[in-house]
Every structure is written in C-alpha cells, then in structure tokens.
C-alpha cells in the first residue's frame, strides 16, 4: 500500500536567546512565575527586519538535504504560519522565490498551532493521489514583532518564540509513513485566542484608536485555552489510536504541540503515558506555533528519542479553536 513518508526534516532558530529575566526587565513578571506556569526558560527572537520566509529558507534547505534531494526536486510548497511576512501574498510564494523554484505551486495554511498538522494532511492527500511526489511543508513564525512588551500583554508575551522547521514528504511502499490524520475546529471560540486588527470587517481595517487599545496584539483567554487543550488533545489521540487499531501501549513517543509544559504533562498523564514517552522542548523555545511540532520531532530524532520504525503520535491544540492529531511510523 502506498503511504506518505517523511523523507527529511530540518529546523532553524534565530540566534538571539531571550531569558525570562530579560522579559522581567521590560514588564512585571518573574522567572519563577513563567517557569512555574509554563515551563518556559528561554525563547529565541529574530534581530531586525526578518520575516517568516527568511527563517524558513535554512529550515527548508536542511530538510531537503536530510532527504538526500536537490531543491529543484521539490514540486509543491505548503507554508503554515499565523505570522505571514505580509497581509498578502502568502509566505509560501515568498519562500518559493527565495528557494529559486519559480512556477511550482505554493499554498499558505492559516491554522495557527495546528497549522503543521493541517498542512501534513494536505501533503498526505496530494502524495497518495499521485498529484505530487516531493512536497515541502514548512511551519515558521516570527512572533516577536507582534508581542506587547508591557504589563497589559504579559500573559501572552512570555509564551511565544520565533523559529522555523520544515519537512519533505514523498511516497513510499515500505511499512512506514503517515498512518492517519484527524482534524477538528470549533469557531465558536475564535475570539478566545486571536489577533483582531487589521480586520477586513472594519472600515478602515486599522486606526490609531485600535492600536492604542492594543487590538493589533494577540489576546487570549488563558484559562479557557488551558481547559480546552487538556480536554481535546487526549480525545484526538484516542481517536487516532482507535482508527489504527492501536492502544496507548503501542505508542513509542507522543510529540505534542509545545504550548505549555503543564498542558503536555497533563495530557501525558491523562493518556497513561510514562513521562519518557512525551517529548518536550518548550523549555528552550517557548511556543513556536506552526513550527513547534516539526521542531520537536526533529530534535527528538536527533536526540535518539524517536527512531526508525517507532510509532509516533503528533497532537496539537490552538487558536480557532482547532485541534488535530496524526500517527506516523517513522
Ligand atoms: N507574569 C506575572 N504575572 C502574570 C503574568 C506574567 N507573565 N501573566 C499574568 N499574570 C498574573 C495575572 O495578571 C493574574 O494576576 P491577578 O491574580 O493579580 O489578577 C495572575 O498572574 C494569575 O493569572 P491567570 O491568568 O489566572 O493565570 P493562570 O494560572 O491561568 O496562568 C497562563 C496563565 C497563560 C500561563 C495559563 O492560563 C496558560 O498557560 N494557558 C494556556 C495558554 C496557551 O497555551 N496558549 C497558547 C495555546 S496554543
């Protein structure tokens, strides 16, 4: 049976390391508060005018190299991000140009923390139907240019970091690859985690008053996000296991979206997974949204925590609200 396999992974993080103490110099917070509530110790920020498509270039190059391919082998680009370089055109088009691939299709996915899993499901469908054989999926974010470094925005600001990660997908007839994807959304919660402005439903889309009110910064109902994440992530993992006739004992590693260490520890316990079977790197990078799952998966492989033949479960929850899972055999 033809399946879609991960042929290569790569990631790129900007060099600037920002500690909790660095943030505590800009607004009222503390290393203790941030670590206790979120597990985050450091995050990375870009320096100067760097967009997500810039961060994506080295991540894509590393993924293509890891796949043993040339950049010119890539037939289609999917770019998952909530922080596109510009309002339009999409960052996939900008990346396509920067990678020197004029003419190939380029698609942006706007599904926030589940963007990588939504993108993976599209790549899987395209590969399985024979439409493309070599698809580059990138998840990348530059959050630091849209965070509010003041007490008003501190609940959100401490959580997020910049970064990029990429995956090359292609067909395989070996016993490995993507076994399933499950995608969900509930738009009733759209305003519980969002950036409102600029908004096409307002005339004009953005005013000085909007900016004075901070409506161009991310806003979050943290408690609701936490509650829904710990409910839906175990559900969507059970859904994935049932669809594949697997039990939790078959899982070698859960690689969850890295939003909050406490959420992921709770999800692991709820599923009955021992701590060593749940991967975390949020301590170093914060929440890198669409980049977080491929970044975590790549580091898990590099550290020997995920190996060829392992059953890996990916799961995410985020703005929308959206939630999703995928089961892979590496
Ligand atoms: N530093 C210090 N104090 C902070 C703070 C910060 N960065 N952010 C908020 N606080 C304060 C609040 O103002 C509040 O003070 P008060 O009691 O005087 O009103 C207090 O800390 C508690 O705030 P609360 O919002 O109740 O904290 P919490 O226990 O819910 O933790 C989060 C806040 C954000 C850590 C938590 O809700 C969370 O992780 N939610 C999920 C967020 C997430 O994962 N988002 C991305 C999803 S993809």
Characterize this entry briefly.
The chain has 330 residues and is an alpha/beta fold. It has 11 helices and 13 strands. Bound molecules: coenzyme A.
Number of helices: 11
CATH class of the largest domain: Alpha Beta
- N→C terminal distance: 16 Å
Ligands, deduplicated: coenzyme A
Global mean pLDDT:
98
Strand content: 15-25%
Helix-strand topology string: EEHHEHEHEHEHEEEHEHEHHHEE
Instruction: Give the % helix.
Output: 25-40%
- Say how many strands there are: 13
The structural class is alpha/beta
Name of the CATH architecture of the largest domain: 3-Layer(aba) Sandwich
Classified in CATH, the superfamily of the largest domain is Thiolase/Chalcone synthase
Contiguous low-pLDDT stretches (5 residues minimum) are none
Strand ordering within the main sheet: 1-7-6-4-5
GO cellular component, one term: cytoplasm
Subcellular location: Cytoplasm
EC number: 2.3.1.180
Subunit structure: Homodimer.
Features:
single chain; 330 residues; alpha/beta; Peroxisomal Thiolase, Chain A, domain 1; 2 domains; five-stranded mixed β-sheet; four-stranded mixed β-sheet; 13 strands; binds coenzyme A
């Amino acid at each position: 049976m033809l399946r879609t396999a991960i042929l290569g992974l790569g990631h790129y993080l900007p060099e600037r390391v920002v500690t909790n103490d660095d943030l505590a110099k800009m607004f009222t917070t503390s290393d203790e508060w941030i670590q206790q509530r979120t597990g985050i110790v450091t995050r990375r920020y870009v320096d100067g005018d760097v967009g997500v498509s810039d961060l994506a270039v080295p991540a894509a190059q590393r993924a293509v190299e890891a796949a043993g391919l040339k950049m010119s082998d890539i037939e289609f680009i999917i770019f998952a991000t909530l922080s596109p370089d510009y309002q339009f055109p999409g960052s996939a088009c900008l990346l396509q140009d920067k990678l020197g691939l004029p003419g190939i299709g380029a698609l942006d996915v706007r599904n926030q923390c589940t963007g990588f899993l939504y993108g993976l499901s599209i790549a899987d469908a395209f590969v399985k139907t024979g439409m493309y054989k070599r698809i580059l999926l990138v998840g990348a974010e530059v959050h630091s240019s849209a965070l509010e470094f003041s007490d008003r925005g501190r609940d959100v600001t401490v959580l997020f970091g910049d970064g990029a990660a990429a995956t090359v997908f292609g067909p395989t007839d070996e016993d490995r690859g993507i076994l399933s994807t499950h995608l969900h959304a509930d738009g009733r919660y759209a305003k519980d985690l969002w950036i409102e402005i600029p908004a096409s439903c307002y005339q004009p889309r953005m005013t000085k008053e909007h900016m004075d009110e901070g409506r161009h910064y991310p806003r979050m109902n943290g408690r609701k996000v936490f509650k829904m994440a710990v409910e839906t992530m175990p559900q969507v993992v059970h859904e994935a296991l049932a669809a594949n006739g697997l039990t939790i004992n078959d899982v070698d590693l859960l690689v969850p979206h890295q939003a909050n260490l406490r959420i992921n520890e709770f999800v692991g316990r709820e599923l009955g997974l021992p701590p060593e079977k749940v991967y975390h790197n949020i301590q170093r990078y914060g929440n890198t949204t669409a980049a977080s799952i491929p970044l975590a998966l790549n580091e898990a492989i590099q550290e020997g925590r995920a190996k060829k033949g392992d059953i890996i479960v990916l799961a995410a929850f985020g703005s929308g609200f959206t939630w999703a899972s995928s089961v892979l055999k590496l």
